[in-house]
What does this fold into?
Amino acid sequence: MVDHPDYLDRQPGEAGRSVVKTVNAVVAIAAGLLVLLGYFVPGVFADVRDIILQWAVVLAGFALLVGIANMLRVHWKKTRSRQRGSGYSLVLIVSLLVTLVVVGLFGPTGDWSLWLFNWIQVPVENSLMAILAIVLLYAAARLLRRRPNTFTIVFAITVFLILLGTAPFFILGEVSLLGQVRTWLVQVPAAAGARGLLLGVALGTIAAGLRVLMGVDRPYGG
It folds into this structure.
């Protein structure tokens, strides 16, 4: 087995990868423990925590730049090859470059930057919200036609009450009762559901963080 050439060739590479994986795990676990101790133990650990978080912010900024560069590369390649949907890719590239130039020259609160935000981004977001309302109505109609059960009926009634309480009638104007019902739905059941989802996300994040600290999950490539 020792005389086999393939076995001899694989040993240095596998050993090096094993060392890299071990170093990655040690660094990740140590950084996580130091940040965690910085929140519970005041003093030196708090300073170390702040330094590590600053490093994380810098790395996240570089990761964002790399992601933008990769996105530009992919869409530019798609535009050059004239694939299906290349027109949208060209619009994305032009919009990104124009936004970068305008914000870089006039700042994020400059007149031209605010003009782009108020007259391009905000109308697009409003249009998407309007499309979302239509999609909800269409989904409610299809659910009622295909699978009419208790949850489907509750979903459809909730959608209609929210829409009727938000949009005024042509003749009657805003109906106070529908407005009160919409406010109650938004502030009580919807808020409770959103908080439940946030609690679930927080518990899932804590569980994932503990698994990374214990070395069970290694998303960093270890």
The chain has a mean pLDDT of 82.
